[in-house]
Structures are given as structure tokens and as C-alpha cells.
Amino acid sequence: MSCTATARRPVRRAFTPGRVDRFAALAGQRARALLTGAVERASRFQLRVLHREALRLLPALRTACPPRRPVSSFINGIKSPPVRVT
Q: By CB neighbour count within 10 A (0-12 exposed, 13-18 middle, 19+ buried), where does 1 fall?
């Protein structure tokens, strides 16, 4: 009787059209999250530049009252910023 150790090879599955590949699905989710983050950062940058340029061109721009915020636990931000030019 021989006592040789044999390594088990992983079973390769044939291509099945209905089968979902977990790793490919996770890679797609990661790519989508990275893209979403990049778009959000670009949007925030554009808003910062817009605000800076508006204040540069209209130095008399002031807030009329505190900004209204949306009533939501999901969305954080300003609903409408009331301003006046003096």
C-alpha cells in the first residue's frame, strides 16, 4: 500500500449562461462605487469653483436668511440658499 499525498485540483466548471460569477459581480460593484465617488468629487469641486467665482464677481452677495435644508435622513445638503445683493 502506498501513502502518496495527492493534491486536489479545483474543479473547473464549464461555461453556463445562467450562472453568475461572484467575482465579476463584485468587480463591477467596486468599479461602480469608484466611479460614483469620482463623479461626486467632481461635482463638489465644480460647486466650490462656482461659489468662489460668484463671490469674486458679486462681492455684495450675502445670505438673506439661513438656508433651508431638505427634511431627510438620506440626503444632506441645502435645498435653497436665499441670497440678496446689496
A: exposed
